[in-house]
Amino acid sequence: MLFALALCGSLLTAAAADAKAALLVSAMTPAERFTLVLGEPGTPVRDGVVTGAIGSAGYVPGVPRLGVPALQETDASLGIANPDNVRHRDVATALPSALSLASTWDPQLAYRDGALLGDEAWRKGFNVLLGPGLNLTRDPRNGRDFEYLGEDPLLAGRLAGAEICGIQDRHVIATMKHFAMNDQETGRFVLSADIGEAAMRESDLLAFELALEDGRPGAVMCAYNRVNGVDACENDHLLNDVLKRDWNFAGWVMSDWGAVHHLDAAVNGLDQESDAQLDREAAGGAFFGKPLQAAVGSGAIPLARLLDMNRRILRSMFEVGLFGAPPQRSPIDYAAHADDALHAAERGIVVLENDGILPLRPSIRRIAVIGGFADAGVLSGGGSAQVIPVGHPLLAPLGGEGAQDVFYVRSPPLTAIRSLAPRAAVSFSDGRYPSEAAALAARVDVAIVFATEWSCEGADAPGLSLPGGQDTLIGAVAAANPHTIVVLETGNPVTMPWLDRVAAVAEAWYPGQRGGDAIANVLFGRVDAAGRLPITFPAAQAQLVHPDLPGLDALLALTADGARGYQTARLPPFSVAYPDGGDAGYRRFAKENLRPLFAFGHGLSYTAFRYGGLRVTGGATLSATFTVTNAGSRTGTDTPQLYLTRRLGAPEMRLLGWSQVTLAPGASRALSIVADPRLLADFDATGGVWRIPQGAYEVSLGAASDQLGERATAPVEAQVLNP
Ligand code: BGC
User: Which of 77, 99, 215, 376 is a plausible cystine mate for 385, CB 3.0–4.6 Å?
Assistant: First the structure.
């Protein structure tokens, strides 16, 4: 681990949890053994019958005779969700999006986010959290990238592992999802992600592997899509070979909602069918209901397999503390959590461009705030992640996209800017008329344009441009006033045709319920601009692996609003090729010599950091030491990054590690990074092992993947490592 985490404990050792689970399984009647494997919807009343669910995404009845509690499962990508307001008016802390968390590069913060989510879940009566999500960003139009942790397996895996520890330390089971290759929403129910074994192990699967090692989640959710032609929830190779055999995953695999299509899933590694009601409606019955009973009865599915499913569920329940420390409905300290949400949002904001205008000086007299509903709030991502935030209802402006409402969280940047610039005249234009906004901008010292792009589960963005004419608005404002700052609230990278005409750009993602304050605090330099990109910003759509999003044309031909509908219509099956293989994001950009708009790792601090004294030693892995100095005039937080840049004479590009440090002006700190050996290795798909070839390995230290300075080389020994 890079950073020592506060805790990642459990109430019981794994062995004790296994033993207790085995005892319980042997005490179950034959009928009781079919209870925990079948999930139901989380609706408290169905067909007039009280179900026992407290209101959420999913519910699995318990076995009261044996004291086994029900599983109450809630989504939590942005906070504890309340789908369709099923728990009447129940609010929760709306955290910044996962992509914002990834921009902090801070495992401690990920742990704290997890602990906050776990605490709120537990006090509301939930004992299973349906997150974190950590599919690597493979396409920056994916409608769920905001729910994930970026494009690098090390960064995503370490942060997810820390978040899982935070959740489970509060005695709530965490569920890593969506296993695996659920990389676009268009056609998610029918597409096959076709990628080679070695490529998958070195990238997307590596993220899950690292998170599993660090966090030991109780559950994994398999994905909707197929992988190499086989449904992810029936994928013997992914579930049995990779997850359970190679990685020793001891917990259970639950399906995504409606992702089971055959009973075979039971032998291929699935342990629990979620929301069987969806399958009753779509497929005429639940697979893990009568069909499973019949198959176990006839011996077609071995009884041992059914016992294993139960044991896996129960051992996670024991290990995380669902028996020893069951949820207690109790008051939540929302005020403290709001402070955490503010801090997280500040840390996640990435200043992409700055000609020196930021941080804004208190002496500014006239400010124009333009567009992005900045008078009302900050944008939220949509779908199963949607949260009803504490304090104020969500705002849904007119003109929502497709079948879903676009929601803003009531944390107005305009109010926050006014309070930090009490002597300035701060005026607002909603930006609907670019000429009026430009006329206002011409009369002020600084114009701050807010630009938003909504993302939602079930749909991908049709392109990389900001929607709704916002590029025109920004262009008009920048033409009227060169002191224009653009603040982005997006779930993904966007293109910026106006970039060379503005003074600064800050990416605030979906910053959550204190987002307006966080943005103002960064703009005015109350805190350093500490965020670093966890994802490449392409310069143009032509740079994407698939410039035309696979399946989008077919979808548009099927349904007029298909591009923005919540659930994409069922398309005919299709395949998505992965010509980039294991080289997701910046690794492919480096290999193909593509110049991004902003590179992975990029982010501008308000102070200046200098690196020096890089030394690297080899052997079984690479260990680097170096010094970071704050050579500027303000306290700031830096994230120096170490990349593998050459291996056995051939160019490489891969994040090996990073460190994080907050330094006062003039202060220095000696830091060290030890590379996980798997980052130096190739996965040998035939032998099922990692192989590190012997030779010289060059590392480079820098502030971003495109700002590498010192280099050093060391010899690494040949090794074979088991996965
Ligand atoms: C999503 C999952 C979510 C589940 C329950 C599915 O549609 O893909 O991420 O956990 O619904 O809400």
Answer: 77
